[in-house]
Amino acid sequence: MIHKLYTADIVLPGPAGESVTDGAVLVEGETITAVGPRTEIEKQAAPGTPVENFHGGTILPGIVNSHIHLVFHGGPKPADVLQSESDDSRLVLKMAARANTLLRSGVTTARDLGDRDGLALRVRDAIAADEIPGPRILAATTPLTPPQGHCWFLGGEVSGEHEIRARIQHLASRGADAIKIMASGGESTPGPYAMWDPQFTTEELRAAVDEAHGAGLTVAAHAHSAEGVARVVDAGVDTVEHATWLVAGPDWDPRPEVAQQMAEQGTILCHASSNDWRRLAAVAGEDWARRLGGRVAWFDSFGVTQIAGTDAGITSFGDSPAALARFADYGFTPARAIEIGTVAGATALGLAGTTGALRAGLAADLLIVQGNPLVDLTALTNTLRVVARGHQYTPEQAEPDR
Ligand SMILES: [Zn+2]
Q1: How far apart are CA 348 and CA 305, in angstroms?
Q2: What residue ranges define each of the domains in the chain, with the CATH number in brackets?
Q3: pTM for the structure as a whole
Q4: How far is the CA of 69 from the centre of ligand 1 (A)?
């Protein structure tokens, strides 16, 4: 078994507010065995334990990215590129390479919210078996959508409550970790549903939640449409993805009563974007960018729990630390942003007893960066080392964009 002592100027065990100056993390095999001040932890390490000292560095939990798509390539026209890839074996190889990029950027856990034919399960299982490098993956497999609905080409078209329930049973039996349902139209799919159109009735969404929860699975609902957001919250989904409040026009119509309901029910928001309002401004104009990007602060004012997700696949696979750092643009403190990207994500995904913090008994999932992210969040992007279940990785310089 590998023993190793990692030391750094600062250790952030999580949750927000905890910080150890001149700290250390002791790792044995795949597990953290001690965290605390260096002088104390050194005494607990067996004689001869290798030590790696990160001067001027910070050790924090590995990032949890709660919204990715390994089937998409992370470059322009992701839906077109995927539809032109007919060979599943080649596609799985590419997905494995993308998981590797994600890992080396600092992500040690990721939730895949939509693939084709359950291919993310193969990548998930190969990573879990230590056959290929990658973050721990939870996979929703193929998302449910109505005929011709958002991402219909992934193969998840269902019509009516009976088919919804049957499909969820099928996905559960294949080994899905969660259920993804497309509750509104989406950007990458032309067709009958615009982004501001809901795609399922509240009754259908309730049936999906009932069936998934009965099978022990959580439900993540894609919703750009204001009406779609209201319906999925009413139906009791676990996480709302995007929640951009779009209405025809296009315009936007944030509904305070729905945000209030989310806070009361414990419905979680995953912003599911790069969080990059400047990039959004270049596409949609500054006014839209401020409104859409600023919704993370708006939701926060109601006390809605948030987790971090970048929609990697639609966005880049290397962007997770930067997307987390951009929470500062919306007034979040560094400690809160880090908590959203680590502890909160792990808790939301049912992994609080596995990862998301630095504590004896949890998986050795560490992100080691240069600088102090509590002073400047962009330090999160200065990756020195990523440790995933005790395995060490160096950052990747070039990112595949294919
Ligand atoms: Zn997505």
Answers
A1: 9
A2: 3-62+354-393 (2.30.40.10), 63-348 (3.20.20.140)
A3: 0.96
A4: 6
Question: How far, in Å, is the centroid of ligand 1 from the Cα of 278?
Answer: 20
- Cα 79 to ligand 1 centroid, rounded to whole Å: 11
Q: How far is the centre of ligand 1, averaged over its atoms, from the C-alpha of 270 (Å)? A: 10
Name the burial class of residue 402, with classes exposed (0-12), middle (13-18) and buried (19+) by CB atoms within 10 angstroms of its CB: exposed
Q: What is the mean pLDDT of residues 145-170?
A: 97
Measured in Å, residue 7 CA sits from the centre of ligand 1 at 37
Q: Summarize the confidence of residues 161-190 as an average pLDDT.
A: 95
- State the distance from the centre of ligand 1 to the C-alpha of 12, rounded, in angstroms: 29
Give me ligand 1 centre to Cα 179, in Å: 13
Length of the chain equals 402
pLDDT tens digit string along 255-299? 999 999 999 999 999 999 998 888 888 888 888 888 888 999 999
What is the distance in A from the centroid of ligand 1 to the CA of 330?
22
Residue 67 CA, ligand 1 centroid: distance in Å: 6
Residues 269 and 302 sit within 8 Å (Cβ to Cβ): no
- Rounded to whole angstroms, how far apart are CA atoms 42 and 51? 9
For 28-84, what is each residue's pLDDT tens digit?
999 999 999 999 999 999 999 999 999 999 999 999 999 999 999 999 999 999 999
329, with CB counted inside 10 A (0-12, 13-18, 19+), is middle
Angle at 104 between CA 373 and CA 383, to 5 degrees: 30
Instruction: Compute, in angstroms, the gap from residue 128 CA to the centroid of ligand 1.
Output: 23
pLDDT band at 191 (very low <50, low <70, confident <90, very high): confident
Contact 38, 44 (CB under 8 A): no
The rounded Å distance from CA 114 to ligand 1 centre is 7
